[in-house]
Amino acid sequence: MSTVLIVAIVVAAVIVLALIVRAMTARRRLAGVEREAIGEDVEFERDQAADRRVEAEVAAERAERKRVEAELHESRAREREHQL
Prior knowledge:
The protein is mostly helical.
């Protein structure tokens, strides 16, 4: 009876050890996937920031062009006014 008990304890210990190893492996895989996802999120956010900077620069250039156009129109209006 004691031999059967010892074998049962050893088998149970091996099963528990296998479950622990399996859980640790799954945890490592999950951590790797999470790290990869975070890395992708960081890259996406940096790309978004770069896109917004480009959009801001384009908007600033457009605004400058519009300002220059307005000044040109104003100048033309003054010239026409002087012609009257």
